Amino acid sequence: MAHIDVLDEGLALDAPYLVEGLPGVGLVGKIAADHLVEEFEMTHYANVLCDGLPRVAVYQEGDADLRPPVRLYADEERGLVVLQSDVPVHPQAATEFAECIDGWLDEHSVVPIYLSGIGREKDEEPPVLYGVASGEGHDLLSEAGVDAPAETGVVTGPTGALMNHAIQERRTAVGLIVESDPQFPDPEAARKLITDGIGPLAGVDAPTEDLVEHAEEIRDAKQRLAQRMGDGEQAESTQAKPLGMYQ
Q1: Which residue among 84, 126, 127, 230 has its CA within the 20 to 30 Å range from the CA of 49?
Q2: Crossing angle between the packed helical segments 28-39 and 215-230, to the nearest 10 degrees
Q3: Are 111 and 174 in contact (CB under 8 A)?
Q4: Quick one: pLDDT at residue 15?
Q5: Ranges of each domain in the chain
Q6: Among 177, 157, 179, 175, which residue's Cα sits nearest to residue 167?
Q7: Which residue ranges run through the membrane (predicted)?
Q8: CA separation (Å) from 81 to 118, 193, 206?
Q9: What pLDDT was estimated at residue 25?
Q10: What's the CA angle centered on 244, arms 241 and 245, to 5 degrees?
Q11: Quick check: 156 and 201 in contact, CB under 8 A?
């Protein structure tokens, strides 16, 4: 049966922010989510056992415990929950996932922060970040100082499906879109998401020096997943695309 399997009932979550870390362009969402979980030493709060998610088990270096591929980590003190996914998720499954966790989102008054990269060739300029929203998310973006998009676009893949569901449910939600490398994992863009987006929105201060100092190691560690997503799984990859003036 599809459900959120809570492992730590002792954690009290009151209107937390949920940072979504599904794989996508530049792996910016996954890199940012993984960094937050590690930096804050977040608690493995729940397993996401929703229909449509890959029926696989994952394990980590130095740890024999098996885990499902999609999990929730929580930091009670910071009022923060992170969705961590170790596999690409098909957009259709993302819609089922959104419906699967609706009750949990409502029960805890969760405000989702969805993350996406928009492919831009790398140059000397820092990546640009902007925000989109549904419900009262516009006010949250304004308070956090996150600018609106400078062009018309569309968010595809699983994150696009989650955003679409938020619109249908009239849910307060925020989306952060950052310019990112279209071909390789992009720790710099993930750092931008954290420092200029997630941090101000959720009121958390996460050190990000490691994302810059160990950028090459992070790229190498994430490259295999990025290559797999590029070969036959591109439709499952979260990304933002400009639509242009004429569609």
Answers
A1: 230
A2: 130
A3: yes
A4: 93
A5: 3-242
A6: 175
A7: none
A8: 24, 16, 14
A9: 85
A10: 155
A11: no
